[in-house]
Amino acid sequence: MDTRRLVLFVIFSFSIMMLWDAWQQKNSPALAVQQQVESGMQSVASAASSKTIAADGAFNIEQGQRIKVVTDLFEAEIDTTGGDLRRLLLNKHRAAETKNGSFVLMDDAQKPMLYVAQTGLLGDGLPNHKSQFTSKANHYTLADGATSQEVRLTWVGNGITVDKVYTFNRGSYVIDVAYQISNGGESTITPSAYYQIVHDSKSKQGSALMPTFTGGAYYTEADKFKKINFADMEKEDLSVTSKDGWIGVIEHYFASAWIPQAGLQRELTTKKLAEDIFAARAVIPAASIAAGASVVIKAQLFAGPQTHSDLVAAAPGLEFAVDYGWLTVVAKPLFWVLSKLYGLVSNWGVAIILLTVLIKAAFYPLSAASYKSMAQMRELAPRLQAMKEKFGDDKQKMQQAMMELYRTEKINPMGGCLPILIQIPVFIALYWVLLGSVELRYAPFFGWIQDLSAPDTLFGTLPWLNMPIGLLPILMGATMIIQTHLNPAPTDPIQAKVMKIMPVVFSIFFFFFPAGLVLYWLVNNILSIWQQWYVNKSIHAAALAKKGNAKK
């Protein structure tokens, strides 16, 4: 395989990689849990699968009165039925595909999505996510200068008082959720608390060209970070017990996760509740509560963007929600450098350009070796073409003559392969960094590019193909055409035609890609063109000098 074929293979393979997201292998051994928790979970599953399904078989979620909460980061709605968090808007993030409004992370409207955070208690006569709570107010606002806002809901029954307390903290996407249980009855109770996120499997993000993951995820020190797609949830329930970890739902750019109090025993599970409706939940057994005694069960809910600093601050392992797969060891340092560059220039587009320059500089010696090999092959192209005409279809003699020519000229036709292969992991890792970074969502560059996470649409959209037409992909195609002219001309006519059409094909792909990705490849190509032109010029001058000395 010569360098041209390797480059073609790399480009083709990279495109296939971008079209398909890797299937995550599920590793969810079923572990035993306390009998009380198991029986409680069965009762919750039964309630969810019977009482929440309407007569026509559709999933139905009961509604009571709404309590609205406004903070610096959230606009939330809590329902008195179950005290559930039913709707959550992120004030610092724009709504998808619109310039107005905040991003809706959670909603119980079911169309276009169902995404709610529910909690309840397990045990006879205790409130679950179907029980009715009361609140002293129906609207709460985080006051100027206040660090937190508490929302208290109360349930009373059988001599037992249960307060469900939300605490919204300024500047944090972590919401504290506590159960304060006071046993005013005559007998001891042994409750467990469950915290679950309910999500449908239909409202997924991404596209065939830009696939992204929407599904469950959990983390424990033993199992580390695991993703669970909805198809696996349908086949089998997850059941993992641990004294650490969290469980939640992740999607492109955003995540939610229940984080039980550290050190408490917990069971992390998934469950199919109805057709296309699934739950990811954590169950926490509480200590026995004697008559006249009380106890507090604490947990936290992270609900927000996959910003690295917010994820790290929320819980161990949550930063893996931005999943770079097997290239994490490369991608994380790249994002760190990108973030530092942004801190210097305050523009993510400029930061991408600077990062591209740094990467190109780091790989300059390797790229130079590759381009040198290609330039030498370019100089030999006329002689190789003459050999092909001389030997015709005699491939064996042609091969022998080529190898003799390489030995005479001291050229290794595979000399450019290793440098290219070494750079591939970096290029792919940077692709995932730019694709998965919420920091680039609606991040402006300059001029018409006001969202580096969206395709460039300077020239509008072709309606019959729904294909955006932008300047960056056109420039990208132009640089690919220039590169084909700098490369050695293929002796195989079929190869030559493929190399000519490739820029057109890949330009079409890049019309659909986010502007940030196209910007990276455009700058990388411009730098590669300059370097390759310089190397070609040097090799050509050396070849002319060699010919001149030979004539003397």
Structure description:
This protein is of the alpha+beta class. It folds into two domains: 256 residues, Beta-galactosidase, Chain A, domain 5, CATH 2.70.98.90; 183 residues, no CATH class. 39% of the residues lie in helices and 25% in strands. It contains twelve helices and 21 strands. Strands 6-8-9-10-19-16-15-12-13 form a nine-stranded antiparallel β-sheet. The chain has a five-stranded mixed β-sheet with strand order 4-3-2-1-7, with no helix packed on it. A hairpin with a 3-residue loop joins strand 15 and strand 16. The two termini are 37 Å apart. The N terminus is likely disordered.
Question: What tags apply to this protein structure?
Answer:
single chain; 552 residues; Beta-galactosidase, Chain A, domain 5; five-stranded mixed β-sheet; 12 helices; 39% helix
